């Protein structure tokens, strides 16, 4: 067996340096638990950034994946397959949209939404060719393509990757006045996250989404909501927008759409918008493949059958309340919604990374975002006892007087 140390050295030697993972080498997962190559067991409070809402290796997803893999995996869209139509019908009916366009990664689905919104702007709204503007928010995260990082407000995401595509206008997140001021006759859409995950689990002011809905409608602007991380149960609703009774014109899904088994993403809208796409306008070799569609169909059924939204509605408040009770010299504030929390550390805490490393030694997997925030997003199948176990470990680290002691304590 190749040791953890060797595996880490191979990855560092042969892999590109675009990530800095925690030094734990995982080999198996089940529900909310993962195991490293030395057999150590960890409680996971990240869920691959919400891609594993259904938990690691959900038995129903493994069964469908194996069955479909032995049957038919890829046809390309040159031909039809018997899974795509069912996936399309079931997803649209579940979320109340008329049309869906399937892709693979989240970034591709965001690109799809951008193309859809712009083409709608030209063909339906009548914006002069090449003039369409999309409003986006500071602190956004919509993926890593060159177009998308071009409108990021995070300097590192952009540095060295220009020139960037024009046509995006950046405004402060949660600021309705700034949104209204940014709108021109050429504005075609507002692209927004209902809660910024990568941005540090930033919750916008109450009523923000509902107000953007009205402003968009009044100005003939499409409301395009990126629910890739916030959707599919994470906040206690199938879509985070539902908390404010908002129905966007376009929604973007990814991550948990196939339960972490396979990359499946999608952009949804009604026919009045989606029908701007004509044959040849857009596509993907793997988008809508029968393997991804079969797994995604089952992943959606698991969310419904196991009432993961109901579980989150019940357990999410508890997690946030208990986190706020932890006595700590390092914590500035705790924010979040549902089973999704950001523990914001004080300046003097010296960064979130060392807390994540200390938690790893105690058997809890979490990851920092933006240097000073510890992000928590456990699989939604987690039990209250497992949440309590995670809270105990968090309290041990956040409550420690000297962090070095936490490592030594184990
Ligand atoms: C993860 C994420 C993306 C990008 O998804 P990829 O599958 O990594 O391309 C886009 N938007 C949001 C809100 C995300 O959390």
Please characterize this protein's 3D structure.
By secondary structure, this protein is an alpha/beta fold. It has 2 domains: 152 residues, Aspartate Aminotransferase, domain 1 (Alpha-Beta Complex); 247 residues, Aspartate Aminotransferase, domain 2, CATH 3.40.640. Helices cover 38% and strands 16% of the residues. The chain has 15 helices and 15 strands. A 7-stranded mixed beta sheet has the order 4-10-9-8-7-5-6, sandwiched between helices. A 4-stranded mixed beta sheet has the order 1-2-3-13. Strands 11-12-15-14 form a 4-stranded antiparallel beta sheet, with helices on one face. Strand 11 and strand 12 form a beta hairpin. The protein is globular. The two termini are 26 Å apart. The relative contact order is 0.16. The model has no long low-confidence stretch (mean pLDDT 97). The site of pyridoxal-5'-phosphate has 16 residues, from helix 5.
